[in-house]
Each structure stands twice: as C-alpha cells, then as structure tokens.
Amino acid sequence: MSVLEIRDLHVSVGEGDDAKEILRGVDLTVRSGETHAIMGPNGSGKSTLAYSIAGHPKYTITGGTVTLDGEDVLAMTVDERARAGLFLAMQYPVEVPGVSVSNFLRTAATAVKGEAPKLRTWVKDVKTEMAGLEMDPAFAERNVNEGFSGGEKKRHEILQMRLLKPRIAILDETDSGLDVDALRVVSEGVNKSREDSDVGVLLITHYTRILRYIRPDFVHVFVNGRIAEEGGPELAEKLEDEGYAAYVKDSNEQA
Ligand code: ADP
Ligand code: MG
Ligand code: MG
Questions:
Q1: Which residue's CA is minimally distant from atom 7 of ligand 1?
Q2: pLDDT tens digits, 167-210
Q3: Ligand 1 pocket by C-beta < 6 Å: which residues?
Q4: Which domains can be identified in the chain, with CATH numbers?
Q5: Interface pTM (ipTM) of the complex?
C-alpha cells in the first residue's frame, strides 16, 4: 500500500520579476489502487503539477510538500523518485539519439530496480507487454522517440509503465492525439496495471473521452492552479455536458 500526498503545493515558473505563480495551493492524496482524474481547461496548470512532482528544474516549489509513503519527494533526485516507485513518463528525454527502445527500457528498469533484470525473463516480458499493447516487435529496435507518431509515443509510455511497475503513475494528456484504437489499447494497458499491480494512477486530461475507458474513482476539477471541485465519476459526466466555464468564472471572481 502506497500513498502520494500533495499538501498546499505552490509552484512558480520564471525568475525574479518574471516569476509567475502557477500552482496556488494544491491538496491531493493518491493511494494504491485508486485512479484520480485531474481535469481542467488548457493553461490551468495541470502539466505544471505533473512536472513539479517529476522534479523538472524549470519549476520552483515555493511552498507545500509532496511525500510518497512519508518520504520527501521534493528532496529526491529524479532517479530517486523513480526508484521510490513514482512513474512520470515525461521525466524521460524527448529523443534519445542512437538508443533503441529495447536498450532504453532495460536501462530504465536497471535504474529503477537497482540491478539489471535477468536477460531471459526480461526479453520475454518485453515481448509479452508489447504484444498486449498491439505493438510490432520491430518497434523494440527503433531509436527512442525518433519519428514516433503520437500513438507510438503513448504506447511506449504505457509499455514503460507496464515494465517498470511503479507504485504511483502520473499520466499527462494520455489521450491527446490518439485515435480510438490507440486510445483503447493504451487504456487497456493502464487498466491491466490497476488490476495486476494495484498501481495508483493520477490521470491528467483535458478531455472526458479517455474516462470512458479508464473509469476514475475520483475526479478533480483543476482551474487557475488549484482544485476547484471534487467528486466521483459522475463529475466527469457533468463536465462533458457543461464544460469548465462555471468553474473558471467562480475562480476569476474569487481572484
Ligand atoms: P495545462 O497543462 O493545464 O494546460 P500548464 O501547466 O502547461 O497548463 O501551464 C499553466 C500556465 O503556466 C500557462 O499559463 C503556461 O503558459 C505557464 N507555464 C507552464 N510552464 C511554463 C514554463 N516552463 N515557462 C513559462 N510559463 C510556463
Ligand atoms: Mg496556500
Ligand atoms: Mg498540459
């Protein structure tokens, strides 16, 4: 049982006079086996939340705490966060010249587990998971992210999650740029991890579409750098009908 706790998190980007507060006091708890959807309009700070937990150097934590099973995540290096069981797809570089998917995955698994996975079982595991994600075996020999389509990038992201078996996975805009087939396959991968490794999921999205495939236990509406409303899956249905306008208006009136 793991628990990621975010308490009154404040985050800024930019320096000196250009510094701008993006996250304005975020409180959120994600436990093993729970799926939380964070939904909100573009520019509300959803990716900033993901990047801040990932330890991206562009984001300055100006207040609050993030802990995983009581350990201070914000004091950890990016590698330590991964070893602690946090999975953040975007912590990995956009393109890794000359490194195949297969080698990349093995290096990542070695970094997370502290030792290289046994070659024989590893090759089998990679094959099994790729087949589950309906990926061509030849994909393993391609260079990471070189010429990947949107769908291939997302499948690669979920493949990493399947193989690294994190305690808590943060998936940002997993549905963007996916056709319905890719969306189904990616969602099945996430759902499989929910079943077989009880992963806690923080699913960040602008659209309600993916929530038809990955049913969240909790939905949080994110507006102007903080959570404006919380509820169960029915809240996603309400958002699909009504959009974010009412929450944005309330938030602007409070500001
Ligand atoms: P979302 O993912 O909800 O669309 P973001 O977290 O990407 O929102 O962005 C929130 C706000 O922070 C936006 O106004 C964006 O322009 C700003 N922002 C995010 N990252 C940076 C950055 N690295 N430098 C400057 N501004 C940024
Ligand atoms: Mg505050
Ligand atoms: Mg975003």
A1: 47
A2: 999 998 776 778 888 889 889 999 999 999 999 999 998 888 88
A3: 13-14, 22, 40, 42-48, 58
A4: 3-254 (3.40.50.300)
A5: 0.94
